[in-house]
Design goal:
With 267 residues, the chain is an alpha/beta fold. It has 10 helices and 11 strands. The strands form 2 sheets. The chain has a 6-stranded parallel β-sheet with strand order 2-1-3-4-5-11, sandwiched between helices. Strands 7-8-6-9-10 form a 5-stranded mixed β-sheet. Bound molecules: nicotinamide-adenine-dinucleotide. The site of nicotinamide-adenine-dinucleotide (NAD) has 25 residues, from α1.
Amino acid sequence: MKIGVVGCAGRMGRTNLAEVLDTTDVTLAGAVEQMNTGIVGRDAGELVDRPGSGVAVGNDPVPLFAQADAVIDFTAPAATVEHAKLAAQAKTVLVVGTTGLSHDQAEEIHKAGRHAPIVWAANMSVGVTLLTVLAEQVGAALGESFDAEILEMHHGGKKDAPSGTALSLGRSVAAGRGQDFDSVAKLSREGQTGERPVGEIGFATLRGGDVVGEHSLTFAGAGERVTLGHVAQTRQIFARGALRAARWAQGQAPGVYSMRDVLGIGG
Ligand code: NAD
C-alpha cells in the first residue's frame, strides 16, 4: 500500500513519516509540506533520521493524492479541508487526525466523505477510542446526578483548546446521557460563574512542557467520584492508529468513519 504524508515537518507529521518508513508492508508515496518550513526538497527519510528514502518532500499535494492509496493528514483545519477536497476528487483514502475544525469545516469533511473513504478521529490511539466507549457507558449508567468534568493537558505548542479528544469524550458522555452536547458543554470558566447547572459537562485545559496528551474524565456524585483517564506517553500510538486506519479504509465505501469503526468497538 502506498501512503502519503501531508504536513510532514510537524510533530505528528514526522511521527507518521517515521512510522510509514519503519513499516515493511507499506511504502511512502510522497511527503508534502509548506514552503516556509524550509524542508521542501529534502529527502523525507533524512528528516526523521532514517536512511535516504528516495522521496523528496514536495509542496504540491495534488500529485500526491493522484498516486497514493491513502494520505495521512495531521495538519491544520484549513489545510485539512483542502486535502479532503483533493481526496474526494482523486477518490483516495484520507486519514484525518487534525482537530479544532469549525462546524463549517467539519461539514466540508462530510461533503468530501460522499466521494472517498475518510477516517477522522480526534485521537487515533486504541486507549482513547476505548475510553470514548467507556465514557458513553458510564455516562448512561450514572446519569446527570453525577457531574461530568474533563481535564486535559498538552504541550505548549498545541493550537486548539479544549483538545479534540476532550471534546470527543464530552460528546460520548452526552450521547450516553441522551443530551445535546452543544447545549450542555461548558468549555471554560472564569469569574462569577454562578452555580454549576445539573447536566453540564465541564472542561478545563492545561498547557505546558512537552506533554504528549493526558485526559481525565471525572463523574462527581454525592459522596463519591468515578475517574477514567488516559496518558499518551508517545506520539507513536497516534501514528500506529493512523496507519491501521489507512489499511482498514482501503476498499471501504465512501463515508466518514471513526476509530471505533476501524477497531470494531463500541458500535
Ligand atoms: P504541528 O504544528 O507540529 O504540525 C502541523 C504541520 O502541518 C506543520 O508542519 C505545518 O507546516 C503543516 N501544515 C499546515 N498547513 C499545511 C498545508 N496547507 N500543507 C501542508 N502542510 C501544512 O502540529 P501537531 O502537533 O503535529 O498536530 C497537528 C494536528 O494533529 C493538530 O490539529 C493536533 O491537535 C492533531 N493531533 C491529532 C492526534 C490524533 O490522534 N488524532 C494526535 C496528535 C495531534
